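so i finally got all the pieces together for this one. its two components total, 767 residues if u count the protein bits. some of the lines might not be protein, just check the labels. i wanna see the whole assembly predicted at once instead of chain by chain like last time, that was a mess tbh
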Amino acid sequence: MKKLLLPLTISSFLFGSEASLDMLMKTYNKEVESHKKTVKKNDGDVIVYSRKDLDHMQAFTLNDVLRTVRLFHLATARMGESQLIKSTSKNNQIARVKIFIDSHELNSVTFGNAIAQYGFMNLYFVDHIEIYQAGNSLDNGNDTAGMIIRIYTKDPLRENGTFAQLTYDNLGETRVNVIDAHKIDNRYSYLLNLDLQNHKTKTITHNGYDLKRDANKAQFFAKFTKKDDYEFAFSAMKDKAEPFTTFSFSPQNDRQLGENFYIHMRKQFTPNTLIKASTSLEHLEIDYKDYNAVQFIDGSSAKHLEIHLDTRSSLVELQHHQNFKNHKLLLGASFERMEFEPKSFYLDGSAYPSLPKDLERDIYSIYAQNDYKLSSDLTIIGGLKYNYSKLKDGHSYKNTIYRLGTKFEKKWGTFRLFFFNKMAQPTLDQLYFSPIFAHANSNLKPTENQIVDLNFNSQVTKKFNFQAGFATSKIKDAIVVNPNTKTFINNPDNITFQRVFTRLEYEANIDTKFTLDYFQVFKDKTFSSNKGFFLKADNTFNKLVVYNELVYRNAYTDELGHDIASSYDYTLALSYQYSKKLLLKLKGENLFDKAYKSYIYDSNDPMGGFFIQERSRRVLISMEYTLR
Amino acid sequence: MRTLLLLLIFSLSLFGNSLELEAKILSFIVDNISTNQEKIVFSDDTQLLKQIALNTKVTTNCQDASIVIVKDKLSLSKECLSKKLFVLDYDCLEKLPTSFGAFFFKKGRANIVFIEPRLEQENIHISKKLQPYLEDRIW
């Protein structure tokens, strides 16, 4: 009888004459959140950042989100940018992740990782983000990665207006975001987004030199959609940055320019069949003039370094979904061409003698995935992908990726168990052109990774959700740098590790939510934090939103033997709806001044180097205005 | 006991169905407005109308209605458009000068608005519960 009382109370609350329209609207808005249509729970351990989450946490950039993701952390790299690192890995060993914006994969041809370019990406045009970890689906690009980040842009039909946001912080950073999204008629709609930012951080003085990581950034995104037919997207990003340490920790007159463009088209032929096509260009210009000479691995040195790299990729992919009887089938085929072109490389004005040319990689893939519902509570999931990769110098790779799993679903909870065998190709810089820190090696083999992943999810009560997961992973032929020959090699030793996580979500009511996400990694050798948690309290009081976030990573000893204390990165974000048109925001980042720290090593410094926090302590103030 | 069970099922299904919630919101609005006629609702969205019928008096013939909930103005006859109009799209609020309010998406969320001069013009009174949603003009 008691069990009946709760829903009865809820129903009488909603249906009764005293029901609040405000409460009904909140319940409706929660029910129609866009991620409910896109999230694929069978595609891996998924973490969802809904539109409401992103708004309340005041996530300005992708890194604001990634910082809170379990099993990873952000660390400052030598060139000043924040890089995503797998827990326990060295802080200069960048995690391999994939980023999708809607159905387009942001592909970093050269370095195999798009975080360096897109971590600072503004999220003003983003509706929600889904992050898939462990044995994720085969429907995720040609190559595989440790984590898939799926970013979904705002729906013009729901945005339906013109909005501008101005942000300023105590370090002098200014950011302007503008979005215009409307439907043209019942079939056509568009979204335009422009972001401008002068990024400011604290200057670090090292050996008498000022090391800065400030940057000017611009981002434009446009989307044009015909309902149930096609979508066309264009993105352009420009980033002019001061490169922090440069190569010799003695910047004199340095410049670094990055530009990324892509065009993406998706055409829905039938409700079940679609074709995707995209082309992208990355352009990188480096002009470093240092006081001290840069030492290269071939023994040469220079004070002035000029590099100009272009990389391009084009992709065509056909996908067909078919549901029949108890089967949910996905079939796909794709072709991708990647081109890497070091256009110029000058050391003290002299051209580098052996600049590689015509670095091209073609990848052909076919894949099939089937979810077979064996009974009302048991589903068998299987997927197979075959990749054939051919390089212009004659090298070719063939590999098969497969994923087997089962879902067991009861009223009290859902178990998912997956076995995933995946391969990651060496990147083009590892294979052909890496003149600075390590020699390229064209004989590298793909890295093989086998994962067994078990996760459990239970909606214990209407208010309380519980998740837990365990995974074990074995990595074969990992690509590392041989410390003696300074060359990329396949690690002859297998690497194994296990990890566990648990996530507790308590939603006291529609305006009050608490989340705790804890993880731990078990591995023989660890070079960064191996455990941590993310604690969130999200409360709405009438027109005021109060959001608290604490990201913890434990103390660790890095590969050089430095002991680094635990990090407690605390964020407080307040937003107040001043009027129907004006939203005021105040955010304090890293308020304890104890964000994740790493060590930047300077081989020319007898003292070694210095410790640096991943982000500065700062306070941001924003105003968001509805123009139309 | 059976009644309790029905209520239980109904309230649970409420949380799983956005259409039912949308209908509930629209019924709430109809309950909280008063006109000089009997309130009989028509909508060109037939699925929505079926749900609204659970709580509110409806008709499948636009001519018999006193309040019309408009999804697509092109689908309605001139006669229908002369009724008291509540629209499901903000653009319709601009295009139909006699419409008195809208339920629409903006900035990613569902919103409700009533245009005060139009309420007066159409001789519609709203209860206190709807007054927070009053605007003096279209944005």
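Chain B has five helices and eight strands.
The interface with chain A takes residues 4-5, 7-8, 10-12, 14-18, 21-22, 24-25, 28-29, 31-32, 55, 72, 90-91, 104-112, 129-130, 132-133, 135, 139 of chain B (CB under 8 Å).
anyway lmk what u think
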